[in-house]
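Case study 2.
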Amino acid sequence: MRIALLAHIRHPVAPPFTGGMEAHSWHLAEGLTARGHDVVLFASGDSDPRFAIDAVVPVHHERVFPGLEHRGDPGLRAHVDAGYAAACDRIAAGGFDVLHNNSLSRLPLERRRTGQVPTVTSLHVPPYDALRGFVHASLGLGHRITVTSQAQLQTWWPAGAPPEVSVLHNGVDPAAWPFRDRGDGSAVWSGRLAAIKGAHHAIAAARLAGIPLTLYGPIEEPDYWADRIAPQLGGPIRYGGHLDGRALAAAIGSASVFLFTPCWDEPFGLVAIEAMACGLPIAGLANGAAPEVVGEAGCLVPEGDDADLARAIGVALAIPRTVPQARVLRLFSRDLWLDRCEALYAQVRAGPAPATWVG
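Prediction:
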């Protein structure tokens, strides 16, 4: 198939990934290309040049409008809308069999556009006012929507989802996150260093549990970093930087437990399954999709008491490392994820029959 992949443009779709949305688009482009599809990645022009890039904007917009995401800035909104509108026009004229929409733009959701190119939209965020109404109004014969978890499905459609919506769990390549049969006794955390990701809870719990902790990831919120993270560093608490995939997998795999601390309605938690593939059990907060993703591979507690999270670390450390690995291989492998993407593409191209499987 000839596939257009429309990405979010806040950050480049290139390793080391700033967040899960960038990782999702990169791995989707890489996986579909490896399966023989003709993929064009519509993303910021500074994305990974190994792909065929059609630039939505010349460079990712965080460079041009730093710190203005979700703040209603009119300049940023006009910049993003102009880029996406032109990209959607090029997709409509490009002879594509299907569009996989990973953007947070309302423009690819318009029925006049989904009527031109069969579209699969993957939602990676909880519902918010600027997008919710457009998503709900967008369903039609040429459009399918996926969410990443049953928990996310419930937040978007609390009264029940229409048949055009299905759960498409994220997947990872086990070869990229190799299993290690033992760890060094330490804890590890990775993700965007932003308040909603909760690294401060991981630090507090690790101190209470008496276990060394290393944090990895990009510093997304400098004030949060300066106020709540940097003053806590030193001794057994360290920051390991923002690593590329291979180095990050090696660092995570050498630890003994992964701390997963979402302080929001987490839609999925890609970092958790990356660690689980390496064999790490999870100690974390039971927000959003975390229980659905972690299952028997960890111990989750309600947010609010870091002493509870510290106790969860001890429980998680007793889980054999083969348990989290097996859960990833059974539910969250890249091949399973790509199989389901291809099935969705076939369904949306076929026309009126909606997707019937969930999971």
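Residues 187-331 form a domain with the Rossmann fold fold (CATH 3.40.50.2000).
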